[in-house]
Amino acid sequence: MKLANTKTDNAFDYGFLSKRIFPYIKPLIPRMALAFILAVPLGLLDGATAYALKPYIDVVVNGNPMNVRGFELTRDLLAALIPWLIVAFAVVQGLLKYINAYLTDWLSNTISNSIKLDLFRKLTTLDSKFFDENSSGLVLGRFLGDPDTASKSVIEAVKTLITCATGALGLIAVLLYNSWKLAFVGVAILCIAFLPVALIRKRIKKVSNESMVLGGGINTNFNETYHGNKIMTGYSLQGDLNAKFQKQIRKSFDLTMSLTKRVGWMSPLMYLIASIGIAFVMLFGNHLIINGEMTTGSFASFITSLLLLYKPVKDLGRTLTGLQGVFVAMSRVFELFDLVPDIRDKENAVELKGVKQGIEFNNVCFEYEENIPVLADINFKVEKGKMIALVGNSGGGKSTIVNLLPRFYDIKSGSIKIDGVDIRDYTLASLRANISEVFQDNFLFSGTIRDNILMGKPDATDAEIDAVVRGAHLDEFLHTMERGLDTVIGERGTSLSGGQRQRVAIARAMIKDAPVIILDEATSALDNKSEAIVQKALENLMKDKTVFVIAHRLSTIKNADTIIVINDGRLAESGTHEELLKIENGQYRNLYEMQFKTVGV
User: Can you list the alpha helix ranges (DSSP code H) found in 26-152?
Assistant: First the structure.
């Protein structure tokens, strides 16, 4: 799946989204309920403050005594009591806000982390085609950014909705208590002001998707600049990269302003409508006061409530608008969960327990993109314990052949068999457990040298580690490092030389002790001294194994049991070194002569 082609068809299917996120919410329901319950008094306290104005003005300011269930509230009593009640309300409200904010952050981060863990597990199951089709920046944005937007924002939004809704209801109750006639006018106007929120869903979805793709491109640009800094400097690419980034930033700005242009009018429109409503309320309220249907205290309380009501209604509108973006992100998250890798275990797959006979390619055809053949009718056989070398022109398909064996990709037609069984009938875990790879540019993970070696066998003993250290000739440079195997090598192993990285990779493959070894240009990027050391390590690795070797330097594969020449996706020649040299005008012979005869070897 190309992540840039996201459709988010379920972005506003609230039933679908609720059902999908519920498993992450279910274990947290008690704490979530507490957070939401605390949001209720947070909203209602504004109404209490507004209500307090009525007795304060009527009794304290105007001197009219007030009787509540037979108890007379005097001016002196309320004058002393109301200020302290306001302080008490503020203290309670502050404590509730702190507890509620802590619970909200705890819940949001817990849900976000749970989703990220599951998404990372999902990422590790996806096949090579997925990583070929999607940039690193886009993957980072989708797998790390969207979960934060989806989970963190949704809890905060729900809490805000509850606070705003209860606050609005509390204030409306104060409005009704003071005057139902005025309340009808004020609430009707505010409801009209709230309607524009429903008009922007599709616009937010479109801009959100475009921003996600663009954000992925920006992340990729940063990643490439970081990892390709030497190429950037050596080829003076700063100007090109700056121009590219400037273009991305400009497009991001245009998208943001496009959304602002389309939805930014809501806030002033809501404010205008609310202001008109307040004007009508004041005109009608004056009439009621003059006619004795309302006290000045009730009117002051009413106006205060109406003004306070504008804030939760505005926040409610802003929160609902923000939720549209949250729903889009949530839909994108669940799209990732629904990804099905092309390469997976078939039903009733069996375990591969070592190689007993050999490996056979039968009429293998393959293409990365539909109708663009990369390999055609590849046929060869490798007996157990033998070494086969693949040579030929660059881009001819050699690396593709060895990538098909551990099922990094699946063939289009034909079959690849181990011991007479199609590799697609084996479980992926057992198939790959029987294959070790050493590539030209081996990836080392951040951590120590020991950590990287143990990836081949996490439960390896110290004796096994010592054996592979000697076998891979790591001891030749480890003694120069203060911490030896526990030396931290940094991201991608950049603190090591090319030859040192290769030897760590060989040790990793060696400790895995898989019966099949793939060596893809394992020494081509090394100088002569490093190549000689790495070649010794490879010879130790290959003992008693079935080996596939891709080599540009033919001197390293002269002793292979079989050499096959792959050109333009087809098997051109096959035989031993001596047999292939005897073929008049043969492709292998031409390659050999170009490498050796022309330099007097």
Answer: 29-55, 75-125, 128-133, 136-140, 146-147
